[in-house]
Amino acid sequence: MFTRVKLHAVGGPQVLQFEQVQAQAPGSGEVWLEQTAIGVNPLDLSQRSGAVSIPLPSGLGLEGAGRVMAVGAGVTRVQVGDRVAYATGPLGAYASGRLYPAERLVKLPPELTSEAAAALLFKGITAQYLLKTTYPVGPGSRVLIYGAAGALGQLMVPWAKHLGATVIGVVSKPQSVERARQAGCDTVLVFEAATLARQVVEATHGHKVDVVYDPIGRLSFEASLDSLRPRGVLVSFGAASGVPEPVSVGTLNAKGSLFLTRPSLAAHTATVDEYQGRAADVLAACAAGIIQPRIWQRYPLAEVARAHADLHDGRAQGAIVLLP
């Protein structure tokens, strides 16, 4: 028997329910995975709470790693026994075993553990498309990264530095400043909505930044806009503090012909080739030592509610991994 988390209603961590299931025979193009590690991401919390709508009932989780135990008809990309990971839907990663589309699996190199893969792939692909596609960071770029001490920030900061950027990191509390510095930030600011933009102006000697990567949302939106140089880009890719208020196009003009985008991982991994290419770039960056997964805590799958609570309350200092 295998265990999986099922969501029948949205709400707090207490709505996460467990059920026992038998191993299932994979259909055409599918595999049956026995999972050894599962990644926890802020999007999981938004889906569980109802802030991001999903059809119910539903599984939960978009990132996992394990071993292929059975393959369905037409599967050629992987075979029984392969160590694999994934970082996109269908939902249902919170499980000890599951069916999954073979074409979305990523083979793991021998030196990368399942736990490291489950901490790396979703966040790594997010960092990859943000830094290389949404705004192509390069030598001389000035970037502002919120959450610089968090699990995603600890990937984005060193990768941006490797690409040649000057990085200003933003953290939520003074205790996180040193961790952001160790990640590679040139400057670290403790977030205060009323003063952040002025601090960015001072840190850049009046130039401001080329791009702001903002997963905070409502609370930080105005400060992010005001931190951009003319024709700068605000990448609003999350809403930890709520969805920002609508912005007038005239405001973007008045603040310097700014660009505003709201990207998603799904739109940047829509085809198998794009998904596999981004995943390969993440694994190559990890192998080269440019980025490394930073696991803060491991929880048994049975304690997923505690993992969600710790992430929601801001206690996490890196990636969270569930162990079936």
Task: Walk me through the structure.
This protein is an alpha/beta fold and 324 residues long. It has 2 domains: 2-121 and 266-323, Quinone Oxidoreductase, Chain A, domain 1 (Alpha-Beta Complex); 139-262, Rossmann fold, CATH 3.40.50. It contains 10 helices and 15 strands. It has helices spanning 42-49, 114-134, 153-162, 177-183, 196-203, 221-226, 249-254, 265-268, 272-287, 304-312; strands spanning 2-7, 16-21, 30-40, 64-71, 83-86, 97-101, 106-107, 142-146, 166-171, 187-190, 209-214, 228-236, 259-261, 295-300, 319-323. The strands form 3 sheets. Strands 3, 4, 5, 6, 7, 14 and 15 form a 7-stranded mixed sheet that branches. It has a 6-stranded parallel sheet with strand order 10-9-8-11-12-13, with helices on both faces. It has a two-stranded antiparallel sheet with strand order 1-2. Helix 2 crosses helix 3 (153-162) and helix 2 (114-134) crosses helix 9. The longest helix has 21 residues, at 114-134. 46% of the residues are buried.
Briefly characterize the structure:
This protein has ten helices and 15 strands.
* N/C terminus separation: 12 Å
Number of helices: 10
Overall mean pLDDT = 96
Tally of strands:
15
Q: Which sheet architecture does the biggest sheet show?
A: 7 strands, mixed
Percent helix range: 25-40%
Name of the CATH homologous superfamily of the largest domain: Medium-chain alcohol dehydrogenases, catalytic domain
